[in-house]
Amino acid sequence: MIALIDADHIPYIVCHNKIDEPVKTLQECIDGSNSYLQGLINGCKADEFYLFFTIGKNFRYDIYPEYKANRKNLEKPAYFYEVRDYLINEYQGISFVGLEADDLLCIYKKKYVDESKPYIVVSTDKDINNLEGMNYDIKNDVVRIVDNEFAEQYFWTSLVTGDTADNIKGIPGKGPAFAKKLWEQCKDSGESLNLFKAKVISEYLNYFGELKGVEEFYKNYKCLKIIDFHESIQFVPPLNTSLIYAKTLGMAFE
User: Fold this and answer.
1) How far separated are the first and last CA of the chain, in Å rounded?
2) pTM here?
3) Which residue intervals of the chain bear CATH 1.10.150?
4) Fold exhibited by the domain 148-224
């Protein structure tokens, strides 16, 4: 099975320093990244893997200049960039100008779905719930199967509530409880998802007015939607997980 790993979070985790502890050395952070990767592979029981990274700004900033503006002044931990470069160089990390890691992950996911090859999505990002299929919940160390209805409901709910992590407002004053109420009105219908989508769009039009409602809906849809195709992507083969094992084994004998 192939693990599709959104690796953006790894340098944050392995380079993080607790307030009452000394700053980790670069080597400690690098060793920590190898051990962390080994833990992910053990958890999802993959034989091969990819690491995907977000480098630079992506197309969403063109649609919404304030996208993730709430993160601008957040300081990276010491050795963040060195560890990211290490992971990219040692494990052939994949990035693409204009796309985020989860876009690349989803593009590769679609390839393996189309080829009927086994895969598992590995991510700490809550947007993993938008992706139908087999997902590894890192926090709870559990493999989950996300069906189409759950993935679609989760995504369209986020269009109502917005996403504070990415500075996306959604429909002001409409939170999870409101979105749940909308879904409850639709879930027993034979066309539950289509009806739910129609109600969400109607709420945009009701709140913003017709023209502004269409604009706001389009902006949020494009910012929140994980894409699964890009004509310029050239696929590369995965790495064998034995590469990680060799590095962690080497650390044990140093």
Assistant:
1) 30
2) 0.95
3) 148-224
4) DNA polymerase; domain 1 (1.10.150)
